[in-house]
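Long-time lurker, first post. I've been practising inverse folding by hand and with some scripts of my own, and I keep getting stuck on stretches where the structure tokens seem ambiguous. Below is the full token string for one chain I'm working on. Before anyone asks, I'm not after the true native sequence, just a reasonable design that respects the backbone. If someone could post their per-position residues I'd love to compare against what I wrote down in my notebook.
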């Protein structure tokens, strides 16, 4: 074991995150109101913003995210094909889909209900002055009918190239079913896919060991450029959203996991640390998907036949964190603009946001599109979104971690109900260390 591997992956990622935040805040203090500052080094000067922030940190962070995204399509496609073709019962696929979608919609409805209740209790928008320059151009959301039609690819290769995960999932399912029904030819191809899956998972492990550097670069750039003044001005809203996110992640998910499976929430949350830190640093459920899938199978004990379906589906339609932001933001905007919402209005917000989490799946900027839909539904000004956009970057990181936690919780519940869950792996504390070592 090398000196580098003596420290656990979790500790190294945390160290990279803390160091990045500290350096970013230091650079922000050095820059102040200046465009850039030169650091004299004798023979030459280094520009803080030009060389470090827009140079090294930007390049390192973007390469890290690009590397994770590079694995998403091959990992999802190969893993889902392997899982689907191994299903002995064709009806099982329908059960997996039904249970997964029902659980994802249920957790989303619970999330936004908690958010609205907490926001009504705290009243984050009372006394806030509306900025005169607030403006937001809301894009049109696709209809649910159009989304369902668009789930089926006309060109699967193009769907993979564009990263359209719903279309990739549908094609992988159909391809896996066809392999299972093809007899010996299907079995021969299945062996090739099993080998490909092993290779891709090894690549995931390699990238995970390089994660501390990527996390450091992302955090350093973010905290150099983030406007702390905006967060202070919207502190009540900001911390209300954070509180709702933590309540949902730590209490609601734990309660559902314990009630539906009997598994230990503490063990579950402990093993989610790495995936949550990845999600926090990348702000993308899709980019974190390779780590989420590895966590669900290698750390938590869900079999690949289930996890390869529920994790990609969750990364696409599970938007609990976004729903929480929408719940708090709806109350905040209503209070800022002095609009009284009735109980029926809040029930409409819950219903709209829950259904929109599926209806707008895979659409770029989905969070803002969903929020515009919700605001329009209850007659609130869409321009209110512009008020909260300044602090949304940091909140987006936190709600992505919540979404990933929800993906794994649902995966455990569905896998346990299908008897496709290894309790020994879940309870084994050493299973969490398997992803931290290179063979």
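-- Answer (accepted) --
I ran through it position by position. Result:
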């Amino acid at each position: 074991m090398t000196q580098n591997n003596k420290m656990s992956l979790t500790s190294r990622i945390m160290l990279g995150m803390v160091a990045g935040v500290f350096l970013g805040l230091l650079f922000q203090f050095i820059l102040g109101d200046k465009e850039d500052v030169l650091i004299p080094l004798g023979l030459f000067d280094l520009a803080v913003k030009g060389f470090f922030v827009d140079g090294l940190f930007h390049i390192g962070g973007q390469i890290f995210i690009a590397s994770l995204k590079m694995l998403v399509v091959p990992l999802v496609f190969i893993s889902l094909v392997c899982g689907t073709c191994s299903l002995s019962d064709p009806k099982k696929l329908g059960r997996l889909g039904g249970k997964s979608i029902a659980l994802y919609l249920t957790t989303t409805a619970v999330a936004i209900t908690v958010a609205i209740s907490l926001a009504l209790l705290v009243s984050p928008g009372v006394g806030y002055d509306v900025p005169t320059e607030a403006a937001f151009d809301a894009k049109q959301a696709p209809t649910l009918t159009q989304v369902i039609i668009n789930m089926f690819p006309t060109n699967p290769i193009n769907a993979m190239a564009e990263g359209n995960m719903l279309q990739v999932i549908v094609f992988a399912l159909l391809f896996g079913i066809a392999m299972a029904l093809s007899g010996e030819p299907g079995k021969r191809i299945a062996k090739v896919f099993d080998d490909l899956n092993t290779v891709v998972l090894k690549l995931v492990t390699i990238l995970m060991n390089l994660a501390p550097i990527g996390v450091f670069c992302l955090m350093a750039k973010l905290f150099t450029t983030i406007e702390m003044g905006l967060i202070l001005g919207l502190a009540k809203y900001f911390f209300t959203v954070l509180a709702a996110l933590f309540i949902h992640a730590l209490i609601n998910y734990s309660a559902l996991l314990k009630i539906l499976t009997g598994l230990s929430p503490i063990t579950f949350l402990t093993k989610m640390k790495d995936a949550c830190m990845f999600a926090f640093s990348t702000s993308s459920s899709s980019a974190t998907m390779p780590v989420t899938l590895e966590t669900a199978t290698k750390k938590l004990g869900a079999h690949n036949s289930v996890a390869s379906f529920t994790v990609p589906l969750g990364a696409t339609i599970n938007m609990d964190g976004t729903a929480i932001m929408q719940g708090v933001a709806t109350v905040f905007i209503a209070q800022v603009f002095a609009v009284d919402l009735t109980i029926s209005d809040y029930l409409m917000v819950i219903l709209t946001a829950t259904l929109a989490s599926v209806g707008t799946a895979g659409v770029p900027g989905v969070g803002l599109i969903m929020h515009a839909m919700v605001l329009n539904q209850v007659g609130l000004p869409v321009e209110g979104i512009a008020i909260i956009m300044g602090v949304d970057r940091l909140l987006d990181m936190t709600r992505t971690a919540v979404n990933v936690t929800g993906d794994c919780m649902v995966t455990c519940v569905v896998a346990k109900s299908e008897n496709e869950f290894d309790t020994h792996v879940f309870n084994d504390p050493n299973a969490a260390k398997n992803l931290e070592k290179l063979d």
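A couple of notes from the structure itself: Residues 1-5 have pLDDT under 50 and may be disordered. The two ends are 10 Å apart (CA to CA). Happy to go over any region you disagree with.
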